[in-house]
Amino acid sequence: MKLGKAICKVRNGGAYEAHRSRFEALGLTFDRWNEPQYPFALVRQALESFYGRYGHYEVPQTYVVAADDAAYAVPVRGMKLGQIVQDIIHDERYAEHRGELEAMGVPLTARKELMVDRI
């Protein structure tokens, strides 16, 4: 089992919930996992750069801005942009900016398939 998935289940009160206190004793935090890592202005900038390169905002969930990609500003290099978009779709982060993203044309409906063929 992947550690990230197991931790997610603990956070959501599913499997391993009985062991939550043991995880907390190890220093794992559950309350702050949802806080954005990047200011929204940087996420918007990364999305605009993605659009400039690919001509759409359908960011595959696995898309990560390459650390050496000159098409992106230095502060967003390494950003897991695809995961951030998924978090936005599922109202886990940046919920207060959904209207702005929709106005930009960012598709914010759940997608079953990855958009790998689009890039």
Q: Biggest β-sheet, characterized? A: none
Q: Count the strands?
A: 0
Count of helical segments?
5
The chain-level structural class is mainly alpha
Residue fraction in strands: under 5%
Compact description:
By secondary structure, the protein is mostly helical. It has 5 helices and no strands.
Polypeptide structure, described:
The longest helix is centred in the middle third of the chain and has 15 residues, at 40-54. This protein has 119 residues and is mainly α. It starts with a helix and ends in a 15-residue tail after the last helix. Helix content is 39%, strand content 0%. It has helices at 3-11, 20-25, 40-54, 81-89, 98-104. It has five helices and no strands.
Output the keywords.
single chain; about 120 residues; mainly alpha; elongated
SSE map:
Blueprint: H1 3-11, H2 20-25, H3 40-54, H4 81-89, H5 98-104
